[in-house]
Each structure stands twice: as structure tokens, then as C-alpha cells.
Amino acid sequence: MISKIKAYLKEKKIDSYEIFISESSSIESNIKSNNVEFLGGGNVIGLGITIHHNKRTGFASTTDLENYKKCVDQSLEISKSKPLDKNFPGFNHPQKYRRVITHDQKIENISAKETAAYWGKVIELIKKSNPKNRAAGIGIMSSSKVRIINSNGLDVSKKLASFDYDILVDNGKTSTEDSVSRASIPNLKETADLCKFVKSLEKKKKVKTGKFPIIFHPCALTETMSVTFEPAVNLEEINKKTSKLTKEVGKKIFHESITIIDSPLEPMMTGSEPFDDEGTRGQIKKIIDKGVFKTPLSNNCEAGKAGKKSTGNAMRGFSSESEIGFSNIIIPPGKIELAKLIKKIKYGAIIKQVTGIHTMDAKGGNFSQGIGEGHLIENGKVTSAIQDSMVVGNFYEMLNQKIICSKERINNGPFKVPYIFIPELTLVGED
Length: 431
What we know:
The chain is α+β, with helices and mostly antiparallel strands. The protein has two domains: about 1-195, PmbA/TldD superfamily (PmbA/TldD fold, 2-Layer Sandwich); about 205-225 and about 335-430, no CATH class. It contains ten helices and 20 strands. It has helices at about 1-10, 70-80, 105-110, 110-130, 190-200, 220-230, 235-240, 300-305, 340-345, 395-400; strands at about 15-30, 35-55, 55-60, 135-150, 155-170, 175-180, 205, 210-215, 260, 285-290, 290-295, 315, 325, 330, 345-355, 365-380, 380-385, 390-395, 405-410, 415-430. The strands form three sheets. It has a six-stranded antiparallel β-sheet with strand order 3-2-1-4-5-6. It is globular, with a radius of gyration of 24 Å.
């Protein structure tokens, strides 16, 4: 098939091109009232073709690979309606890549029967923890193979896989929900921890209103980072001058204890890969180095506009053009254990989840969010769960305080980050 597509592109006298083919498969399961139901699975094969012809770029895609000629013709027609692309950097040339373990191969090969057995163990553990517990949720085991071929001789392939699930546990008095994304099959300890956590939510009360020390759980931290920090360090937004950090490259924006690394070469995370979706080799970059904004993330297009080389952060599917995003985000651990950070607090809170994160001021970093899940800390001990309360602050100001990173870190999806001790944030609860 590839040879046929290349022959047709040559027949149409296309100046340069990139062929992107992805083949994905998944097993999707549904859990209702402690019972496993399978919604089924499926396979999708897709073709995306990007051409650069007469100094203009066009893109088209299809799920019918036999119809590749129409896809090429569409990309050519689309290019004719586009403005001159003066900053087109050209497609990648062949490169050397580092080997990286992207995922556990068991996800690729797992059967529906084995998936059902796994969920059976999860449900059994939930019921064993408390006979009144009821579980509901959805899980998806997915794998994909991506191949990128272009007119400069690049021809590379990569395999990726992940296990993603959202599960809710309700014990009749309260409930909690957990979202997990892994490059391997999660162990059952996470389910046991979730059962303990739901029990800890039974006793609730409002927080006092005022400014208090807060510990941000890795889940709450990554939620806010995804909304406000990821677009801010995107070179496209910086090039358009729509990022809060447009004029901050090379300047200190966070406390010196914060270093944020983007690394697709970190093994066994959902953003692990030897090269990005344009074929640029994976690189380890310090976005933030001891509080200083060092490296905006880019793809070929935006890097070309800025006269730079891509950082290897192009992301796409077969039906979309390249965008910019995180690979794996790593924040190095601190030296103090979480338990000791908790002991430092006379009155405050540990916040695991905030609500309405989509309402956050993505550009400015301001937030005024409900506390979805969290606990009070009183006299150095975690006490009641929090209800009907809010946390108010600014992402950038928060991380510019004299923060402390915990020794412990949690890996979920493309994040491996610690708990963050923040000396002062506003809590809103009791009048």
C-alpha cells in the first residue's frame, strides 16, 4: 500500500509529502453495580497525508486506505486554497533514536477473558473492603502502531499502549472517583487505597475561611498544570503572543525549588516514545530549571517560525495536523516525606481534586475552584474530609512561594510529580 501511495504522489508531481498511518485496537469494558459488562472492542486504521506543493501546505485523511488517491487529491486541492507557507521548515530527515520502553506488552496481547478476570479481582477487593461498596466505571485497554513515511527518506514505526479507567466506589454514605492512566496493568494496591480513601470521606465539614498552608496532591497539581501551564509553554502560543509567558523565557517564574522536565524517554509512562508524531527524536528538556523558564515546547512548524529546532513535542492522530503538547512531565522529588510536611501544618488542608477545572483562567492562572476531594489538617494530623468549600489563588503566584516538594511522587498518565507544600492559599468555607 505504501508503495502505491508514494507512486501516486510522484505521478501528481508533489514537491514533498508526509504519510501518517495509524492502526489502533481497544477492549472497552463497563462496570455497573459490581458487575462487569463488555461494550466490546474494535480496530481503526487511518491514513493522513500532508503535502507541501508550490510553497503551500495541504492535509487530508481517510479511514479507507484503498481510497488513497482521493486523499492525495484532496490534500492537493486544499493546499491551493492556503496562503504561501514562508516558514515551512521541511519534513524530517532520517534520524537516530534512543530505545525507550514505552509500555508493558501485556496490554497489547490481553484478551477479553483476561480483562474480565482482572476486573473481577478489582470488584472482589472492593466488596471485601466493605460489603456495602458498589463499583461503577469504564476501562479501556488500547494499543496502536504508528508509521511515518516522508519524501526525505524517513520511514519509522512505533508501538504504544495504555490502560485507562475511571472507577467510582460508593459505600452508601459517600463516594469517590479515581481516574487512572498507565502504560502497564495497574496493581490491585491502588484499588485497596481507593477503598480506604472512600471510607475517609464519610465524616465531612467545611474549612475555615482564611489564608492557610495547603498541600496539593499530585492529582490536583496536574489538573491545574494541564489547564494553565501546558498552553503557556507552547511555542505556538508564544509566537502568537497569547501566552502569559511570551516575554518570560529566560526569566524566573517559579520558586527555585521547582524544576519541570519534559521527557518522552522516561520508560513505561503514557507519553513515552522514541520520537514524536513528526519523526523528531525524543529529547529530555528542562522546561523550568530551578524556577527559570528555559524551554518552550515546539513542533517543526512553530520552531521554524522562531528560527529554532523542534523540541520533539508534535502530537497528532491520522485525522489531524500536528499540534504541540507534553510528552511526560517529571518534577524531581524533594527530601522531606509527606508525613513530615503534614506535621508542619497547624491548620490547613490537603487537596486531591478540584471541581470545575474548565472554568479556571487558563491564560492568567487564576483559580477559584470547589474542593472536590480533600481533607483538613489540624495540629499536624489529617482529620475530616472537606465539604462545600473552595480554594482560591493563582497558579504562578502559588508556585512562586517558598514551596516544598515531597519525597514521594505519584505516576499517573504522562505525569510523575510530588505533593507540593504551599505556605499560603485562600480557603473559603465557614462564614
